[in-house]
Amino acid sequence: MSPTRRRLLSRFTTAVCALATTAAGPALARDAFPTKPLRIVVPFAAGGGVDILTRVLAQHLSEALKQPVTIDNRTGAGGNVGVDAVAKAPADGYTLVMATTGTHTINPGLYKSLPFDAEKDFAPITLVASVPNLLVVNPAVPAKDVKELVAYARSQPGKLSYASFGNGTGNHLSGEMFKSMAGLDVIHVPYKAAPQAVTDLIAGQTAFAFVNTPLALPHVRAGKLRALAVTGAKRSAATPEYPTMNEAGVPNYVVESWYGLMAPAGTPAPVVARLLHKEVVAVLAKPEVREFFAKQGADVVTSTPTEFAAQVRSEKARWAEVIKASGAKVD
């Protein structure tokens, strides 16, 4: 072979190899994911129901991915501060958010404007859990069931108060629905964080509250609070002893909360579907994880990214109607 032909062949081979390396780069990067620690933003305070379940999930996910998975509690504005931080994070799969019914389906209809789009700015990974609220009262309240609570509140209009984790949160709207559907005149007392609201409820500063089950249940079992009903469409497998609100005398009252993992929009699909979704679902299938969730009053629920996205769209519309009817506003 002549020197000229050898030089041309060498250049051609180099170019082909370079092209192959460039094309394979993203695939190799995806296959190697993760190569550094991951962060899950919990947009609520440490110690709340969302935080409790996320920490257990993070521990097992860290073992599966062989990388640390840390929790970053970013509180404020009904979860909007933490959610916005993830919407603006690099779309590389290393920053996730534990989204909730409140952050992604209630807040869009509650706030006049948000710094993020609950649908367009996120890549859903999977639902994690379905968590009904528990209607709980301070033990000093002379009501052993929902009908007795309704009668007690009606006997002293404008005097009883209920706690929430902040204006516009899911438990605030749960309280407003109860107030409207049962025809009650009660006072809403919003708190900045869930633990503070529960602490004051236990101390008798407020009479009742709708508290997510993982946070409420330990206090109920310790006798510090009394549970009257669950807010789901059916009794919870974790707490079958408590009737639904519908069974307890408030027809058609249903509020079900969910938690689910999301990544920033633009995160590579293989990272979302093949790696994160696959690993998270596998973790949630572990008996010890399911048992822990059940003890906290949460039912493990998983979904495909497409199913999760569809649920967010449909629930946004439903909650917008509830918010409009309740007159709740947050600015």
Provide structural commentary:
By secondary structure, this protein is α/β, with parallel strands linked by helices. The protein folds into 2 domains: about 170 residues, Bordetella uptake gene, domain 1 (D-Maltodextrin-Binding Protein, domain 2, 3-Layer(aba) Sandwich), CATH 3.40.190; about 100 residues, Periplasmic binding protein-like II (D-Maltodextrin-Binding Protein, domain 2, 3-Layer(aba) Sandwich), CATH 3.40.190. About 45% of the residues lie in helices and about 20% in strands. The chain contains 11 helices and 10 strands. Strands 1, 2, 3, 4, 5, 6, 7, 8, 9 and 10 form a 10-stranded mixed β-sheet that branches. It is globular, with a radius of gyration of 24 Å. It starts with a helix and ends in a 5-residue tail after the last helix.
Query: Mean pLDDT, rounded to whole units?
Result: 89
Task: List the secondary-structure elements in sequence, H or E.
Answer: HEHEHEHEHEHEHEHEEHHEH
Tell me the Rg in angstroms.
Answer: 24 Å
Instruction: Outline the low-pLDDT stretches.
Output: 11-30
Alpha-beta classification? alpha/beta
- Counted by DSSP, the helix tally is 11
Task: Count the domains.
Answer: 2
Molecular shape? globular
Helix content estimate: 40-55%
Q: Main beta sheet, described?
A: 10 strands, mixed
Question: What proportion strand?
Answer: 15-25%
Corresponding CATH superfamily of the largest domain: Bordetella uptake gene, domain 1
Q: What distance lies between the first and last C-alpha atoms, to the nearest angstrom?
A: 78 Å
CATH architecture of the largest domain: 3-Layer(aba) Sandwich
Quick one: how many beta strands?
10
Keywords: Signal
Family: Belongs to the UPF0065 (bug) family.
Pfam family, one: TctC
Signal peptide: 1-29
